[in-house]
Amino acid sequence: MKEKLYQFMQGRYGVDQLNNVLIIISIICFVINMFIGNIVIGILAYLLWFIVIFRMLSKNIYIRNQENEKFLNCVKPITIYLKLKNMNKQDSMHKHFSCPCCKQIVRVPKGHGKIVITCPNCQNKFEKRS
User: Fold this and answer.
1) 31: pLDDT strictly greater than 90
2) For the chain, how many structural domains are there in total?
3) Which of 16-25's residues contact partners 24+ apart within 8 Å by CB, and which partners?
4) Of 7, 34, 46, 74, which residue is most buried, by most CB within 10 angstroms?
5) Are both 95 and 49 inside the same structural domain?
6) 5, pLDDT greater than 90
7) Is residue 105 domain-shared with residue 67, that is, in the same domain?
8) Which contiguous run of DSSP H or E holds residue 1?
9) Residue 10: what pLDDT?
């Protein structure tokens, strides 16, 4: 049985970040539908679940990979912002900034007022308050 499942899934796309987000959204829709009982939310949850299964069992790996890349490019600014916020929260001695040109993360000491930061990657200078 295990071997048959392995052979069936061979060449299929599987699970990626977009599928994970769609699964979480569909579960949230199912929970909301349990309390509200709206048929539109229920249909949306089942539709999302169908899309996840379709993407997971698809043999067109190139198209599914492109969809995932587009999703990751849309979510990237949010993840960078949250990462910087978390780094600044954890590090009490330094502040982290992102270079406006190359998006390199630069660490500077806290408590020096307005400073000019030079990016070590692209040599761009930008002014920030530490």
Assistant:
1) yes
2) 2
3) 16/55, 16/64, 16/65, 16/68, 17/68, 17/71, 17/72, 18/55, 18/67, 18/68, 18/71, 18/72, 19/52, 19/55, 19/56, 21/71, 22/48, 22/51, 22/52, 22/55, 23/48, 23/49, 23/52
4) 46
5) no
6) no
7) no
8) none
9) 86
